[in-house]
Amino acid sequence: MANGQGIANNNSLGGDDQTHIALGKALLEEIRDFAAVKWPEEACGLLIAAIDTPNRIDRVVFARNVAEDPLTTFEIDPQTLIEAHRTARQKREQVVGCFHSHPNGKALPSPTDRARADENGFLWLIIATEHNRAGDSGLYRIIHQSTADAAEQSELRYFRRCQIIDR
Ligand SMILES: [Zn+2]
């Protein structure tokens, strides 16, 4: 595939800022192909890593999008979600992130994505799709930051861009 955006040929997991995520090129291509085939619907699934190496994606779980309107949003099949968590526990793995596609061709997280990103530190991989082709890919980590003023109990929430390292 021609698109290699954001992929560096670097085997080191370097950086202690949690923004360097190892994701093999073959695995990324699998996700991109899956997303492309699902166009014009949003494709979705989960990113799985070993407990000890949460910044290295070992495998993905492809899910059914059970959203009422899969053209504009996604909802991972709850059954798949439960099974993925159970299997991960048994294999000393964890669900470290999710992926979904944006059939509008934009790989940036939407305000809806941010509103739904309730798990602090969760990885969000977004694949832009257009006419059964995968375009840009963007990987982000959602950061929840409590504000200094505890009385307000408000929380700042933003996506931090991550770099995909071909493992
Ligand atoms: Zn989205």
TrEMBL record:
Domain of life: Bacteria
InterPro entries xrefs: JAB_dom_prok (IPR028090), JAMM/MPN+_dom (IPR000555), VirAsm_ModProt (IPR051929)
Pfam families hit by this protein: Prok-JAB
SMART domains according to UniProt: JAB_MPN (SM00232)
Keywords per UniProt: Hydrolase, Metal-binding, Metalloprotease, Protease, Zinc
Domain JAB1/MPN/MOV34 metalloenzyme span(s) in chain numbering: 20-145
UniProt KW Transport keyword: no
Keyword hit for Hydrolase: yes
Name recorded for this polypeptide: JAB1/MPN/MOV34 metalloenzyme domain-containing protein
Organism field: Thalassospira indica
